[in-house]
């Protein structure tokens, strides 16, 4: 079992525990804001299951129907997560609307807040694990799940402050007002998750930093070539796809040109272990006098 799948299973376990704690906090207090916090946790559990399925699909090797692999499955999971975050925000707005129409005093708020705080600490630790390891493992699903939980942590902090204010001031209406603010924050977070995930589905190029690294590696390892142009990149989960045209002297033998390609591929894979590289060799009359300078 890969580390990515283990972490995805861990997200399900953590999500269920946090959901139980937040539901208990809502039951103890009757707070609409704490109910909104618990509703978001139901989404956490659902998306954790979706992420696990997507990661398992993405790990499948390439086959006849999917010669480039199944890596994009994780982007579908991340899009689903963003959509479900938005749905959770709308559910919270619905509960907040009922609370605004009929605000009620809170019961046992301090005890409930302590239970909710325990859930938030657990979420904070786990979202750090998800974002950190998700980036290392090149897993969009884990990173998206981590950013979602981070939003949940900030929302829970805001809820705690608002509920305390409602108790101290005696203004029960602060509770549903805070729930509205939490919902709007969650709505924005869901929108950002969807946008980030769609960029991967649309074959967005790698970051400028990674592109500069690719250019440097090609420049330093393509000795024997004249130039490299039409460099293109895209990413899908942990896999980075790189293709370009490499111009060589017209008298270069196929064997020598192949040796140059092998050297460049080894250097790129050393820098980006999950890279998949396609090189089109051209004679010198095809040179465009642009692109990557070969040292």
Automatic annotation (TrEMBL):
GO molecular-function terms, A-Z: cadmium ion transmembrane transporter activity; ferrous iron transmembrane transporter activity; zinc efflux antiporter activity
Cell compartments where the protein resides: Cell membrane
A biological-process GO annotation: intracellular zinc ion homeostasis
Transmembrane segments: 7-29, 41-61, 73-93, 113-131, 152-171, 177-195
Membrane topology summary: Multi-pass membrane protein
Pfam families named in the record: Cation_efflux (PF01545), ZT_dimer (PF16916)
Signal peptide: none
Keyword Lipid biosynthesis: no
Residue span, Cation efflux protein cytoplasmic domain: 207-284
The organism's place on the tree of life at top rank: Bacteria
Gene Ontology cellular component annotations, sorted alphabetically: plasma membrane
Similarity comment: family membership: Belongs to the cation diffusion facilitator (CDF) transporter (TC 2.A.4) family.
Protein name in the entry: Protein p34
Organism, as annotated: Pseudooceanicola albus
